[in-house]
């Protein structure tokens, strides 16, 4: 049985979108956390801000030095796709190809940052078009990415979304279907606990039915709120941890306290959440 500790807690840098990357790292230091979920979006790191792949590599090397000099490490790379013009499902082949090109480049960026995990979700298919056709194109796109990921030694970490975010992969049954249709060892699962609750699924069912395919957890209180301030309560929040320990989960618990109400002071939201976790998680 695993013993999850504060050393297994990661923080998404997207929560600091209105602050500099240096502020994010200093906030992590003040919170006593070391696992970086590095968001690939402006103003922190957006690869298309650089004129060449060489310039991209130089910027990644600079950021990696900053991170490692503070005793931290990148544990997953999360390139921005939801808020930017990308799609796995759109009928326009050029748009899908551009999305795949971006994600393939993101896999190489992840390796340069020092992690073999790249985060993704299905995004939203145009709601006025046929969902099943969009699903088929999405599965094909992710399959193409997974083939590339296998060659690079990268894991693609796929999450569910909520109905307001997507009309594609929303629940455990959808996740099982996508894993089955893509059928690649490179495609693994992130369980987003908020999306899970909205769908009426349970973490026990995810763990029982997907096993070691679960390699990431997005963790927060309800509506991606600060731990202890939402609707879930301590019994449920601690219960998630104990369920993961029961199933010998070996990866990070990633704080997704990313509601825009916290953008003004993201440090306070993460500090409060870390303090809450320390009431039932040991340091190591």
Structural overview:
The chain is an alpha/beta fold and 284 residues long. It has one domain: Divalent-metal-dependent TIM barrel enzymes (TIM Barrel, Alpha-Beta Barrel), CATH 3.20.20.150. Helix content is 43%, strand content 14%. It is built from 9 helices and 8 strands. The protein has an 8-stranded parallel β-sheet with strand order 3-2-1-8-7-6-5-4. Helix 1 runs parallel beside helix 9 and helix 3 packs parallel to helix 4. The longest helix is centred in the middle third of the chain and has 22 residues. It is globular. Pfam families: AP_endonuc_2. It comes from Ruthenibacterium intestinale.
Short description:
This is TIM barrel protein. The chain has 284 residues and is α/β, with parallel strands linked by helices.
Essential attributes:
IolE/XylAMocC-like, 8 strands, Xyl_isomerase-like_sf, 284 residues, alpha/beta, TIM Barrel
Query: What's the gyration radius in Å?
Result: 18 Å
Question: How many structural domains can be distinguished in the coordinates?
Answer: 1
From the N-terminal CA to the C-terminal CA, the straight-line distance is 15 Å
Percent of residues in helices: 40-55%
**Uncertain spans:** none
In CATH's first tier, which class applies?
Answer: Alpha Beta
Tally the beta strands: 8
The CATH architecture is: Alpha-Beta Barrel
The H-level CATH homologous superfamily, spelled out, is Divalent-metal-dependent TIM barrel enzymes
Largest sheet strand order = 3-2-1-8-7-6-5-4
């Amino acid at each position: 049985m695993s013993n999850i500790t504060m050393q297994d807690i990661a923080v998404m840098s997207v929560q600091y979108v209105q602050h500099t990357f240096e502020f994010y790292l200093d906030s992590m230091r003040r919170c006593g956390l070391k696992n970086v979920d590095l968001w690939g979006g402006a103003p922190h790191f957006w690869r298309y801000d650089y004129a060449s792949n060489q310039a991209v590599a130089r910027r990644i090397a600079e950021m990696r030095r900053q991170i490692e000099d503070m005793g931290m490490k990148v544990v997953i790379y999360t390139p921005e796709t939801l808020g930017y013009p990308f799609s796995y499902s759109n009928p326009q082949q050029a748009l899908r190809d551009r999305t795949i090109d971006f994600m393939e480049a993101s896999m190489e960026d992840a390796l340069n940052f020092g992690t073999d995990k790249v985060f993704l979700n299905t995004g939203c298919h145009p709601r006025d078009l046929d969902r099943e056709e969009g699903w088929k194109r999405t599965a094909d796109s992710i399959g193409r990415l997974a083939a590339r990921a296998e060659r690079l030694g990268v894991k693609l970490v796929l999450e569910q979304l909520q109905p307001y975010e997507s009309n594609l992969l929303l629940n455990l049954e959808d996740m099982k279907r996508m894993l089955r249709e893509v059928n690649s060892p490179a495609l693994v699962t992130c369980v987003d606990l908020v999306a899970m609750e909205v769908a009426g699924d349970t973490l026990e069912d995810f763990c029982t039915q997907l096993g070691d395919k679960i390699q990431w957890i997005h963790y927060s209180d309800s509506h991606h709120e600060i731990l202890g301030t939402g609707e879930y309560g301590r019994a449920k929040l601690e219960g998630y941890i104990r369920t993961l320990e029961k199933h010998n989960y070996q990866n990070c618990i990633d704080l997704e306290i990313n509601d825009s109400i916290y953008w003004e002071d993201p440090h306070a939201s993460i500090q409060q959440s870390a303090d809450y976790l320390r009431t039932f998680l040991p340091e190591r």
